[in-house]
Amino acid sequence: PPQVSFTLELEFSCSILLDRAEVMLQATSDSTEATPEDNVVKLSVPIRYEPDLFLSSNTNLHRYEVHPFGTFTHSSGPEFTTTVKVQNFGCYAIQNVTLHMALPALGHRQATILSVTHVLADNATCVLQPPPEGTQVVPVPPDDLLHTDR
């Protein structure tokens, strides 16, 4: 028997949020059919809205020299502030967003190169915690910082 295939592309409004899309398709013909009851199908599919998240960060210190081979002093280095912002540019509300940040805290010979002094959160709940038990914390080699993203 002959077949016809087609694709439906639906656009949804930002002002009316739906849980499901329901479509009824009906085929008609001028011919006499023995089984006209199979000419109708109803489709119902769940709708999931895609968020449009934008993550940005900004810091007031872009360069800091860490001395190699254990020549760190015991005093604190310069304080710097890093601001991280998560924005939803989509028109659909989102829930339960979690952002994990891994901070570079160990250098050559396990020397501490970063300590968090305080966390300020606006419209969020922030939890500062060490790596989970059993996590291998790998120090940053002295000559490898250019190739390390954490």
Automatic annotation (TrEMBL):
<dbReference type="GO" id="GO:0098609">
    <property type="term" value="P:cell-cell adhesion"/>
</dbReference>
<protein>
    <submittedName>
        <fullName>ITA10 protein</fullName>
    </submittedName>
</protein>
<dbReference type="GO" id="GO:0009897">
    <property type="term" value="C:external side of plasma membrane"/>
</dbReference>
<dbReference type="GO" id="GO:0033627">
    <property type="term" value="P:cell adhesion mediated by integrin"/>
</dbReference>
<dbReference type="GO" id="GO:0007160">
    <property type="term" value="P:cell-matrix adhesion"/>
</dbReference>
<dbReference type="GO" id="GO:0008305">
    <property type="term" value="C:integrin complex"/>
</dbReference>
<dbReference type="GO" id="GO:0005178">
    <property type="term" value="F:integrin binding"/>
</dbReference>
<dbReference type="GO" id="GO:0007229">
    <property type="term" value="P:integrin-mediated signaling pathway"/>
</dbReference>
